[in-house]
Amino acid sequence: MASNVVNLCQKSLQETYDSYSNIAPFPWWDGTDRLKLEDIYTELELQTKDGKKTDIAETDIFSPRDDCGTPRRIIIEGDPGYGKTTFCKKMAADWDKSDLWNYIQHNQSEICIIFDGLDEVPVKKLPSYFQDIVDQKFRKLKKSVVVVTSRMIREKNEKQHYDTQLCIKGFDDLTFKEFVKKHFKATHANEVHDGSFVMESFLRKLDDLANKDVLSDLSKSPLMALMLCDIAIENETLPETVTKLYTCLVDIVVKRYLAKGNYSEEAAAKMRADIVKALSEIAYESSGKIKDKDQHVLKIGFLTTASKPLSSGSLRYKFVHKTFQEYFAARYLSDLPPDETDILRH
Questions:
Q1: Whole domain around residue 212: which residue ranges?
Q2: Which of the four, 81, 102, 146, 307, has the lowest number of CB atoms within 10 Å?
């Protein structure tokens, strides 16, 4: 019986990790547009969070260093959209899928346990989660490496929980252009110029942006860089603020969805407003529930099924990226009447 459970676990892990190797950067992409992660993955730039802020290559995060010896408990922090989840998927996809049980039993020091998104844990539970991760629940695997990713956290005495603390710097100009080149090469592989024409057009649009400082901020984030690439296919100009970036992408995605139906211009405009309103309410309420009248928003691509169902047993839904929920929640608040927003401020 035990061996059957282990075999099922191993098979499930292999299928899951294999799925990480082929990704659709955004859920609203057609199924035929899935890309090989190895073709578009651009190595992140990391640095230590100690006083020296030493640059660390991805391949060296497990290597011995003067400040921490050989790290066994590693936390990697990064701003929203900086590639924490994709980094975790890349590590998992690269993992050698040999016999799972024997490998764990006899190669503890070569096991890496990855926790992605510690910042999504309720604040009150953070201290106990740290203890579980580094001490209690994994005491039997004390020789194994534990990697945790999170947005920037401010938990007291956080250093005591792990050996090294790293942060993702984001793309610089060179890595941003490398990412763009890989993206357009992968998404336009069947074209004569192998995506180079589209890429050059995109780079020209970047040069036309008046505010280069804003561009520098946007292009640091892999998620926002990807959004810029998607927008560039549809629009002649690029947005110059984070809010305009999200608004522009939402407009494009909703417009693509509505284009599949035979709607009049007036009907399409009303549906577009209704869709944005529904997504804004879902984001603000943050319950995971979808009202019957709003079921159509599930087809657009901003929501996906959560792993944990509602207490009633019904499916729970979440936004494909936390930043989309934050954007739509902000839209909900901005559309409230002045008297209601005054109550919220107090």
A1: 172-240
A2: 307
